[in-house]
Each structure stands twice: as structure tokens, then as C-alpha cells.
Design a protein that fits this description.
about 350 residues; about 45% helix; about 15% strand; alpha/beta; 4-stranded mixed beta sheet
Amino acid sequence: MKFPERVSEQRRQVVDRIVADMEGKELSWAADWAPCWSPVNAATGKRYHGGNRLGLAAVAAERGLADPRWCTYRQAEEQGWHVRKGAKAAVVEKWKMLPARAEGPSPEAGDAEPGEGEAAERLVPVCVGYWSVFNARDVEGIPPLPERTPAELGEVGEVADQFIESSRCPVREAEGDEAYYAPSRDVIVIPERSQFATPEGFLSTLLHEMTHSTAPELGRKFVGHFGSPEYAREELVAELGSMFAAADAGLDCKAVAEAEQGGKHYDQHVAYLESWVAALRKDPDELYRAAAKASTAAEYLGERRRDLIESRERDAEPVPEPNRGQAHAPEGFSLSDEARGAQDAADAAVRGAAPAPEVAIA
């Protein structure tokens, strides 16, 4: 697919930065990206998705930006803010679903194939342009970024438990040094927590395998063998997905990225780095395709975790006893309603502010 020149230039810079970090820092390549993994629009409060999420994270890491908020020049004006003179913009890609011939699938269209009886044309995602966005550091008048409370930051062990309980498939902690997702049994196997040097090491490995486990639900296919381009692609999706999910859960992404994983799992991931780098050098756009799938997987995992938390709150809510002569509390009020209200307020602040052998994916 041919992209606008400015989009192609930023993509090249992002890929060059990531390849250099992977080659120079190995498994801790993402440690310097800690504040960058969840970029949001300052005017709407909405998180950026897919390749745009990765692209803005890379730009922020390159420029040393700690504020995750971005907005267009027009959005800043509408909010009564002012973009500083000489401020340097980043690119947010603009995509639309447009008709395309079945025999010419878009490289961004994933694994979709035309079904029997389909028309000669179908809709595929196409990059039709871009927006220029500016970081909040370069926007005058924008409210300060609200500080997150300790409760919002999340405790690593508790967050890990929440992800495990909300998993779409069983997660088994077992003795050994292997971590993998087994598609044929639809189960995740991971070493016991005591075998990891840090809680972050356990969580990083857990989220990597949980990202793999979203494949059946989200339409990704497990093909190829270790060392093949197809295998490398899925591994890159899992690597990015684990960082996206950790950031969305409010965790310290620097600690997660630097976590010592140890054992055979560490050796496997060092080998994966070599295959990722080779794949990205061959096709730089592969990184953006992986980011789109990783973003979708992280959002899926995060939504299941949030549903679990809300369900627990509803179960813990005391049932009020009738009190004659006094008005009853409004029906439908719950802790989850209050939590949503608090989140809405926070968003507003941001806006203003082996049977066989079995295939296992490690």
C-alpha cells in the first residue's frame, strides 16, 4: 500500500527506533517508553488505537515526553488553548473502509478472505491521509495532567490475579521453566510466581501468553513454526499486546519492561528478538500491522478485567433494608455506577487537562 509521504517518513522513523532499541537493549527495549504506551486525545479523552498508538508512543519516547495527551491545532483552539510557536507535530494516520477488488487484498486487511458468493468488491481499510497532532507539553493553557492516585496505579500481584480470573481460557501455574499457550487445549501454562525474580516478570510473561490466547476470539491464525515469518509476526503481536495491556492497567511499564524473566522463557525471547528485527527490516509496515492486532487484543483483555472488577463490586454491595417512613435509595445505584461516574470525571479532567505433538505458542 502506498502511504502519504509524511506518513511513510514517520513509520520509517518509528521502525528504525524500535529496531535500534531491540538490538541495543534486547528484552528491556521498551523500558524508556514507560510514560508513552497509552496516548490519549486531550480534547476527547479517547485513547489512540493500533498503529497510531504505537506511532505516538515512539515519538514520545524519542522526544522524552511524559505527558500522554495529544490534540490537533483546531482542537486546541476550540478548547481555548494555544499551540506554541515552533512546536513540532506528530502524525496520526487517517483510515477509512473503502471498496477493493477481492483479488487485490490490502496488506492491512489481516487474514480476511472473500467468502463464497461474495461480490467482486469488498471493504478494506485504506490510509487516506493524516492529522498533525501536538503534545500537551507544547500547548499553552491546557490544564496540568492529573496525578494518578496509588489506587489507580494498581498493585502488581492483584492485577495479575484479576487478569487470570478474567481470562477467556484456563491459566495454570506449574513447576517448570516453560510458558506457553496451547491452542489445541485452549490453555495457558506458566511457571509458578515464586520462580520469577519480580512480580513484574511474572505479569509480563502472563500478559504475553494471554495476548496469544486472544487469537481464537479475535480471528488471528496460528501458522508456521518457530523461526518462520508467521511465527515471528504472532510473537511481535504478543510482545506489543503485553505492554499495551500493562499500560492500560495503570502499571509501571518501566518495571514491567525491565523485569527479569529468567530460564528458558528468557532464552526464547532473546531468540524472538532476532526474528522480529529480521521481519521488520524486510517489511517495516509489519510493525504497524502487529500493533493494530496487539491494540485490539489488549483492549479485549482490559475489558474483561474491568467487567470482573465491576462484577465484584456489585456482589459486594450491601442490600439496603426497607425503612418505613423514609424514601428508598434510587433503584440501580451501585458502586460500579459510582466508579463510572468517577471515571467520567477523570476523563473530563484529562480532556480539560502432548497428545500428538501439540503446538504451543510461547
